[in-house]
Amino acid sequence: MTDSLIPAARDAVEAAVAAVLGVRVLYPVSVLPGAERVRLAERGGVLRCELRIATDASVPVGRVVLAAAAAARRALDRDDALVVLEVASIE
Amino acid sequence: MTDARPPGGPVEDLDGHTLDELVDYLDRGRTPYDPGIESSPACRIALAGLERLRARAADLLEEDAAAAPARPEHWMTAVLDRISLESRPGRRFALPDLPVGTDAVVTEGALRGLVRAVGDSVPGLLTGRVRFTPQEPGGAVDLAVEVSLVFGAPVDGTVAEFRRRVLALLPDQAPFPIGRLDVRVRDVLEVPEGGAS
Fold it and tell me: What is the tens place of the pLDDT at every residue in A8-56?
């Protein structure tokens, strides 16, 4: 993925994951001011997508994680993307 | 509105914010929207705890003010300290058995926040310390919770209801099997029964 495509890809992932049942909020991936909500990095041909989310306590966390990862891959159009999620709050 | 702020208690850092700042933010009805606070898991967990405490404290303090004015400060300070400490991320527990290409963790802060919310939903009970024992890889994790009961709430029934609610919800959210659940009643808040829910 070229650098010029990354902002659009981030937006697509954010919208797709936010729409997943059981995802309440996407948090910035770090506490630094202006940190992005979706971190994308490609190294050695592997696209890594990092997300930090709040989930809904009424939906099993494993189900939310699998659905969020699948949504991120679809948004990226990359079945081989490595999706790394942190469930930072359960509400 | 009840002022649920730590009277002389420790100032704890929550992603760059203090509990005092969160209390003020709640006082303003979470307006204007503060992206720094609303984008912080620790702050959102703490805000949820503060809102529950306020709802409960408003009842308790109203009933208790004339009888024992020093008492609410004691228990409220203890609860506020726990909210502040336990809203932080803490350890990260990996979700097992995920397909190749997906890695996920659940923070200890998220799980503690969930247990606190469950506890505070039980009439007559306030959640104190929530502690997960150090995890053995792949093994069950024990949970120890300290609670306070409002005077008049039946101990056995209230604790049993708390256990029932935790065990109904936590297995679907924790990335490990739940082992022992120890509930310790630390305190009884001496207020009339009318303030117990």
Answer: 999 999 999 999 999 999 999 988 878 899 999 998 999 999 999 999 9
Q: Do A31 and B16 touch (CB under 8 A)?
A: yes
3-state secondary structure of B159: helix
How many beta-carbon pairs below 8 A join chains A and B? 85
Test A86 with B114 for CB contact under 8 angstroms: no
The verdict on B170 touching A (C-beta cutoff 8 Å) is: no
Range B88-189: architecture per CATH: 2-Layer Sandwich (3.30)
Whole-angstrom Cα distance, residue A79 to residue B97?
19
Rounded to whole angstroms, the maximal C-alpha distance in chain A is: 38
**Contact A84/B at CB under 8 A:** yes
Could you tell me where in chain B the CATH 3.30.70.1350 domains are found?
88-189
Tell me: the pLDDT tens digits for B81-132?
888 888 889 999 999 999 999 999 999 999 999 999 999 999 999 999 999 9
Instruction: Report d(CA B20, CA B169) in Å as an integer.
Output: 31
